[in-house]
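Re: [help] complex structure
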Amino acid sequence: MPDTPPRFLEVDRLIHEPARLAILTVLSSCRSADFVFLHNVTGLSKGNLSVQISRLEEAELVTVEKVIENKKTHTTVALTKPGRSAMDSYWKTMDKIRKRSRAELIRGMASNEA
Amino acid sequence: MSHRLQPEAGAILEQASSERSRIREHSFAGCFSDSVHDINWFMESTERIRLISKSYWPLQGLRWVPLWLFLVLKPWSGILPNHRPTFIRDYLTIVTFLFCVSWFRLSAGYYRRRFGRLQSKPPSGWMWLIGLAFLAGYVFCMFADDKNPPVSFVTLWWASYLVIQAVAIGGISVRRYYYGIAAVCVTILALVPSTGWVAANQLLLPSHPSGLVFLGLVLTTVSLLDHFQLVRMFEHPLESANA
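Output below.
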């Protein structure tokens, strides 16, 4: 893909997807959250949320614990250590991209006015 | 004829070329503006989610409502008829306390069922130290009030509690402006002893109900507004914002 600016290739695509990013953001600001909380806070459908959690679990970014409580399965999701460091580096990259894009936008507008 | 048309065609071509380059430049800037907008939207959405996760527990205002209502109702136990057996008041206090504890547990269950469970990160050692120092400050304020100063230091402590609550939990991004208004109201209450109407150490005692009732009402209102804030924060999920 020669047309794609190289800076966007720096982003971790697994985390960058909005649904997965939302899940990881919740988990990075707490110890663990259950399925109901993740469903409410992200607004994702239960099916979509389940799929995204499975993908993150496959990538070993989160751990999933299932417990039977009152004859119902209670799912708790927590961020792993690699997941936490992946999130840190993701936000660092995003901050860099934002700063670069803003600078380029200002430069483009200035050249337009000139 | 062709000689006459040539400069006109050249001018048209030149105009079209400059128009094309202007459009290209605009779309180039537009591309960057879109990417900046996308990144900003992305960051705002994730910031909102992070704030809900961080302030989920402190915003569960319904938990504290009976405790603050207890402050409002406590002074009125003194107006019970004089011929009552004295233990009634003690029983009432115990029943109210038990009611507060069960309400706390019931409301926790309500939040768990409605919004789900979240296990917060444990507070750091520094946070524990600051909390303990703040509590020790309350005792210090009580001793200070005994010297009849023109302002009630215990009431000022409550005002600072409201300010710290507002700033510590999510900062100004959670937009709990009502905490600022509540802190101003409580600060005004702290200035009441300067009028000579009531002594500083009597302002928040059940024997002088107005101070305690005012503080209880302010804290009840703030807790209820916290609850509504939490409900409002959950009303803007990511998928609907994305659609």
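Residues 8 and 14 of chain B are 10 Å apart (CA to CA).
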